[in-house]
Amino acid sequence: REKRLTLPPSEITLL
Amino acid sequence: PGLLEPTSTLVRVAKSASTLGIAIEGGANTRQPLPRIVTIQRGGSAHNCGQLKVGQVILEVNGVPLRGREHRDAAQLIAEAFKTKERDHVDFLVTEFN
Hints:
By secondary structure, chain A is of the alpha+beta class. Helix content of chain A is 33%, strand content 20%. Chain A has one helix at 2-6, and one strand at residues 12-14. Chain A is rod-shaped and about 25 Å long. Chain A starts with a helix and ends with a strand. By secondary structure, chain B is of the alpha+beta class. Chain B contains two helices and six strands, in the order βββαββαβ. Chain B has helices at residues 45-49, 71-83; strands spanning 8-14, 22-25, 36-40, 57-61, 64-65, 89-95. In chain B, strands 1-6-4-5 form a four-stranded antiparallel β-sheet. In chain B, strands 2-3 form a two-stranded antiparallel sheet. The chains are: A alpha+beta, B alpha+beta. The A-B interface holds A 4, 7-15 and B 19-27, 29-32, 38-39, 41, 71-72, 75, 78-79, 82.
């Protein structure tokens, strides 16, 4: 869970 | 596919407009490991279909699992599924469960 918190946010792509 | 996801739903989106009209965020190695629908644009094929909703997580596209795919890879897979002339629809396996 700690590792999860360090993950970066994602970019957003319009499709 | 999908049998281990009891809350998953298969949604077939007909290519009824020139765009699919969804925005997604997430992918492997991000806080949102599977792509999540964040916007549905009015007038797009997804909006016309009426079954996709903001907040749903996309598990599979045309039977191809998205787990483990990074954002750009997942986005490209969806874009190609919409672009190909082999099918007049795109099948999404989605879940409300995040």
